[in-house]
Write a structure and sequence with these properties.
The structure is a single chain. By secondary structure, the protein is of the alpha+beta class. The chain has four domains: about 90 residues, Zinc/RING finger domain, C3HC4 (zinc finger) (Herpes Virus-1), CATH 3.30.40; about 70 residues, no CATH class; about 55 residues, no CATH class; about 60 residues. Helix content is about 35%, strand content about 10%. The chain has a three-stranded antiparallel sheet with strand order 3-4-5, with helices on one face. Strand 3 and strand 4 form a beta hairpin.
């Protein structure tokens, strides 16, 4: 019995395509290896691009086709959602946003009817909050100000009265002893960490910050927020409850580096200054002696 797809060649790897690992593009009907297509999508997503072109006809691939691609890893899908939502929100910030909890794309049309990814709970005029529930994580949040649900208060009133939210954010969860939420240092929205490390990236402004202390992370790792003995390191890395001891140790190390740097540079300059004349003298004396020895041997 002859295979229906026998003779199909993947244009990327130039190998024969098996029936199991076969993927047909909807734009040009070209048949590709599933692994080749997966590698192509992952590479483009890692480059931070929301527009992914078909590797055969260079036509832009449908975003739904990528999001619902079963073989796509969850981490790649989440990053693609972020890039896509960022691009869409720049085009129309009133229609597309990311869930502040899980970065799931939330879509709303001009008639205030939510599509696929969110459910609307309240819609009022005069800057009343538009509360939505993310289909992915079931988190309820305000569409207008990107804050947790504050039904009964306008966004302006809610921003003035942040005591209750701040108290809730600083509270600890019973499950993992982590704080409930952390405020983005750039756009001031609250972000709740589900799991993973303390390196956070805001879904609204893309600012990178530490979930534990709330400070932005801008410097390189070896001198930045993750460095235990750096002046710019996180306070929770070294004696979090003893500020004086932490400042004393980090300040002493920094002062020692500042004082030692010119001494080290001076020592290097002295060594270079001494070594150059020695090399010249040895070369001037050694070369004639070596030539004489070679002449006598010959």
């Amino acid at each position: 019995m002859t295979n229906e797809h026998e003779g199909d060649i993947c244009p990327i790897c130039c190998d024969s395509i098996t029936a199991v690992g076969r993927k047909e593009m909807s734009c040009c009907k070209t048949k590709l290896c599933s692994m080749c297509l997966l590698t192509h999508i992952s590479t483009v997503v890692e480059q931070g691009k929301a527009k992914i072109e078909c590797p055969s006809c260079t036509q832009e691939m449908n975003s739904n086709e990528i999001l619902y691609y079963d073989e796509l890893p969850g981490q790649v899908r989440e990053r693609y959602q972020q890039h896509l939502a960022q691009a869409l929100s720049e085009q129309n910030p009133n229609m597309y946003k990311l869930c502040p909890n899980c970065n799931w794309i939330t879509i709303i049309d001009g008639k205030v009817h939510f599509k696929n990814t969110a459910n609307v709970f309240s819609l009022r005029k005069n800057h009343r909050p538009k509360i939505v529930e993310c289909e992915q994580c079931k988190q309820r949040w305000c569409w207008r100000c990107y804050a947790p649900m504050h039904d009964g208060q306008s966004c302006k009133e809610f921003k003035k009265d942040r005591t209750r939210v701040d108290t809730w954010a600083k509270g600890k969860r019973l499950t993992d002893n982590q704080r409930n939420a952390q405020k983005c240092p750039k756009c001031a929205i609250y972000i709740e960490k589900v799991d993973g490390c303390n390196h956070m990236q805001c879904g609204k402004c893309n600012a990178k910050f530490c979930y534990e202390c709330g400070k932005r992370m801008r410097l390189p790792t070896y001198i930045g927020h993750d460095a235990k003995y750096s002046l710019f390191g996180c306070k929770y890395k070294l004696f979090p409850r003893n500020r004086f001891l932490r400042y004393f140790i980090r300040g002493s190390i920094f002062s020692g580096i500042v004082l030692a740097t010119p001494i080290a540079l001076g020592a290097v300059i002295v060594l270079v200054g001494i070594s150059i004349p020695i090399i010249l003298i040895v070369g001037c004396l050694g070369v004639p002696v070596f030539m004489c020895i070679e002449c006598k041997r010959s």
